[in-house]
Each structure stands twice: as structure tokens, then as C-alpha cells.
Amino acid sequence: MLYLEKISEENKGKNALYKQVAQSLKQAIANNQLPPGSAIPSENALSAHFNVARSVVRQALAILVEDGFILKQAGRTSVVAPRVKHRRNLQNSLSLHSQLEDKGVMLRTEVLHLGKGVFPDAVAGFYGALEGVLLERLRYINEEPISYVQTWLPIEFNTLTVADLTNNSLHQQLYKQFKRKPEQGRNQIQIVAADKKLAAYLQVKNKSPLLQLQASYYDQHGLPMEWFTAWHREDKVVFDIAVDASLENKIQVKNFQRVLK
């Protein structure tokens, strides 16, 4: 069981032992070292590997069952559960939060950073300005990270607070506070390798494949209102894109002009 990270002496007092055992197993499952359908090691084997009591192992396994990582079978060995991928419709202007909420899936949002910042060149060209608001968030389902999002917003949104955006939809807050909502924009999808920062945030191995979505949206008045890049775990998220052959060569993205007052 070399794939299971042991609990070091220095970490034993930092968090409950059963939580550390559970996290090690979750990491092995996320990295496909314990693929779907594979047997979970016995309680005795896990107890010996982590040098903890069997009661600690039982608590850890109970967490994995509750969070949907493993399937417990009466009279049989527990196995890794099939992976559930969450679908994001890229033809829909609804945020990931709203799309999952409509399906009854609870998305937790942690705000990592919120403050003024200097726009990168491409973002400055989009907004026609040099400075704005930088928002960085980590999104979780069942306490497991599924995406890291870096969003650049116009400076007029600088009254947003961390409390506004923790476990809340950005789009819902923008409409609630500023009466602005996304109407049209562009989405660009790439597969990229996780760097050390993204790997740490998303709890995957360095250079693991990620689904990168970069988008720029205009509001109902034709004003630029959001530019973001989101990196999604490819084992947790699927992008849906509708195809209609009747619209081939007829689709045009409206070229909005910045409204000057």
C-alpha cells in the first residue's frame, strides 16, 4: 500500500486521525491509484499501515461511504464507487453554481482572494481599462475540490465582499447588487497540465490533465462584466456542448461596443 500516504508523527496532533486516514484514501482514489471497482484494503491492513486503532479506520471508512467514495457491501469487501462526473452546459449562461443547484447538487465556494488588481493585457483590452477586481475561488462538492476559478471584474464591482461570495453564486450577487447579468460572450476550452499551484488546490498530481475554461461575458446592456479562467478536475466535470447542423455557418457572436455615457 505504498500509494497510501502515512501519517507522520508531526501531523498526528494537527487533525483527527480518522480524518487524516480518510484524506489519504480519498487522495489515492482521486489519483486513480485505487480505481473504481477496486477493493479497499481490510481494516487490519489499514490499521497496520497507518499505525492506528481499527476504530479509527472504521470512522475513516464511514466518511468515505457517506461521501460516496466507496460502496459498502454486506458480507463482501468494500470497493471504490464508480466516479460521478458533474455536467456543465456551456451553451447556458447560468453559472456552475446555478446549474448544479438546479440539479440538487450542493456546491461549496471558498474565496481565496478578493481585491483590486492590475489587469493582464488581454483582460485590459476586453474592459478598456487598466485596473479592476481580482477574485479567486475554490469550488467543492462533498468537501472535494472540483475547480479553481480566477475572475477579473470591472472596478465598479469593488464593493463585493468575501461574505457575499462565500457559498454563493457570483452571477446572483452581481444581479442582486448591480442589476447586471451575463447575456452573451465567448467560451474557450483547453486541456492543460496542472502546475504545482493548481495541483495543490485541486488535490491532484502535478501535471495531471485539467479542463480549462476561459470565458468573457457581456451584460444585458452590452457592457463587459466578467472575464474568468476556471480549471476543472477532468475526473469530476464534463462539459456539454449542443450541436445543431441547421445552424452551421449561421451563428454569429454579437460584437458588442462598450457603452459610453
TrEMBL record:
It holds the Pfam family GntR. SUPFAM superfamilies: Chorismate lyase-like (SSF64288), Winged helix' DNA-binding domain (SSF46785). The keyword Transcription regulation applies. Residues 15-83 form the HTH gntR-type domain. One of its GO terms (biological process) is negative regulation of DNA-templated transcription. GO terms for molecular function: DNA binding; DNA-binding transcription factor activity. The keyword Lyase does not apply. It comes from Advenella faeciporci. Signal peptide: none annotated. CDD domains: WHTH_GntR (cd07377). Keywords: DNA-binding, Transcription, Transcription regulation. Transmembrane segments: none annotated. SMART domains: HTH_GNTR, UTRA. This is GntR family transcriptional regulator. It comes from the Bacteria.
